[in-house]
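Exercise 7. Given the encoded structure of a 151-residue chain, write a plausible sequence.
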């Protein structure tokens, strides 16, 4: 498993906790408690926290996109795992220029296979395939970062 994959998996766990705790603030105290339960290399902690903070910062826009492309589902009816995998992938697709969108999609599908249900990977793939049609950037290449645009 690649280091960024592990960082994404850690971010998913943090987002899952945040989501189920009614969007509890991501404080240093909450993170410190989490890190006592989940050991991770320091660079991965930073990557995971940046992903989570970016998702939280852009949550309204991300959730609107999910709702738009899942017309037959209410956001709250999508499993918490699938919902947060989608949030993380959509954040990366739209706000992290050094991650090619197809990489974000493939990572999301693989994480859904590991943490979701039997149907999760197909569901996540279907939603993200629709989301990528709105992108105005190359799907297979990264863009030069504008400063440290992670959030």
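Solution.
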């Amino acid at each position: 498993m690649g280091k960024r994959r592990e960082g994404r998996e850690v971010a998913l766990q943090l987002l899952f906790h945040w989501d189920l705790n009614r969007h509890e603030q991501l404080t240093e105290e909450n993170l410190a408690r989490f890190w006592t339960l989940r050991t991770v290399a320091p660079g991965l902690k930073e990557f995971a926290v940046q992903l989570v903070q970016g998702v939280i910062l852009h949550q309204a826009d991300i959730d609107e996109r999910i709702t738009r492309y899942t017309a037959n589902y209410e956001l709250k009816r999508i499993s918490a795992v699938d919902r947060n995998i989608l949030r993380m992938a959509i954040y990366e697709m739209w706000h992290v220029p050094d991650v090619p969108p197809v990489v974000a999609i493939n990572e999301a599908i693989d994480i859904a296979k590991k943490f979701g249900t039997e149907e999760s990977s197909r569901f996540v793939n279907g939603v993200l395939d629709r989301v990528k049609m709105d992108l105005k950037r190359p799907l297979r290449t990264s863009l030069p970062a504008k400063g440290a645009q992670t959030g």
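Remark. Helices lie at 3-20, 28-37, 42-57, 59-69, 80-95, 101-115, 120-132. Students should compare their own answers with the one above.
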